[in-house]
Specification:
Layout lengths: L1 H20 L4 E3 L5 E4 L4 E3 L2 E3 L8 E5 L8 E4 L2 E2 L12 E3 L11 E3 L8 E9 L2 E12 L6 E6 L4 E11 L4 E6 L13 E4 L5 E10 L5 E8 L4 E8 L2 H65 L5
Parallel strand pairs: 2-11
Antiparallel strand pairs: 1-4, 3-9, 5-6, 5-10, 6-7, 8-9, 10-11, 12-13, 13-16, 14-17, 15-16, 17-18
Family: Belongs to the SKINT family.
Protein name: Butyrophilin subfamily 3 member A1-like protein
GO molecular function: signaling receptor binding
Length: about 300
């Protein structure tokens, strides 16, 4: 009896140990921000462990509400009737890799509005596991250009402009030795479009007699990408400024002459008009006199 009792205790203890050793399911997503680029695609990682998948598994990706899922898989197929319309035909799951525990979401044709927190949710064996993942969206904007905006003083103002950036980029001016140039404002002027892109511009002031190259650099720190444009201040540029001044003087003189000519033409026209009126009056008087004379002649009867 003692041996049988001991054996039973050993079996029970082993069974208990086996139950304790069974792994609890874990749903893991990256512990860092994932970064995507506008117009590209990205896989939001989500891994189930251990790799045990029930036939009735439910996999759901959503953002703020489960009622409008980004993607829903249930009853062995995609269920997209209530899918958020912003994600129409842009999502898919790796269903063939479910047995490997891969519950990741493929998100295509990224937009700025896709940025934010997503939740990967798995329901099976009467358990629901949910894990978040954060997506950051970046966009490298258009090639910047430099605009000359002021020639009225001894200084020249140069404005560097570019748009369709995300997130808000940094804008700096440098000289040929890569030294930062002093700026007119502490921060660039920023505007945001309805699509979520940023338009930036930044101004520097330079002397007109400067003879060196300056470079405007716009940097997207999220994507670690930048674009730049250079501007060369030269003697030719200085001459062009003087030419513009001379051209302005010529225009002023031309306008004065034109106004004088118009005044002369108007005066001559007025004199001609007055002369014409005077002639009409004289002609009218002559006709009146002639009518009077004709009446007298016709009524005259000579005496015998």
């Amino acid at each position: 009896m003692g041996l049988k009792y001991c054996f039973l205790i050993v079996l029970l203890s082993r069974a208990s140990a086996s139950d304790d050793d069974e792994e609890e399911p874990i749903l893991a997503t990256p512990g860092y921000d994932m970064v995507g680029t506008v117009g590209k695609e990205i896989v939001l990682e989500c891994q189930l462990s251990p790799r045990k998948v029930a036939a009735d598994i439910v996999v759901q990706w959503f953002r703020s509400s489960r009622e409008r899922p980004v993607h829903l898989y249930r009853d062995g197929r995609d269920q997209l009737q209530r899918q958020d319309p912003d994600y129409f035909q842009r999502t898919s799951l790796f269903t063939a890799s479910f047995t490997a525990g891969k519950m990741s979401l493929l998100l295509k044709n990224l937009t700025v509005k896709d940025e934010g927190t997503y939740y990967c949710s798995v329901n099976q064996f009467n358990k629901t596991l949910t894990s978040p993942v954060t997506l950051k969206i970046g966009a490298v904007g258009q090639q910047p250009f430099i605009k000359l905006i002021d020639l009225s003083s001894e200084d020249v103002l140069l404005k560097c402009v570019s748009e369709r950036w995300h997130p808000k980029p940094s804008v700096e001016w440098f000289d040929e030795q890569t030294n930062k140039l002093p700026l007119l404002t502490d921060a660039p002027r920023v505007e945001r479009s309805d699509e979520g892109f940023y338009r930036v511009e930044r101004i520097i002031r330079l002397k007109k007699d400067a003879h060196h190259k300056v470079v405007c650099v716009i940097n997207n720190q999220l994507l670690r990408s930048e674009k730049h444009v250079a501007f060369q201040l030269s003697d030719q540029f200085q001459y062009s400024i003087n030419d513009r001044k001379d051209d302005g003087n010529f225009k002023t003189a031309f306008i004065v002459v034109l106004i004088g000519g118009l005044a002369t033409v108007i005066a001559l026209a007025l004199l001609l008009w007055r002369s014409h009126i005077r002639q009409k009056k004289l002609l009218k008087q002559c006709k009146s006199i002639l009518r009077s004379d004709s009446v007298v002649v016709s009524s005259y009867t000579p005496h015998n």
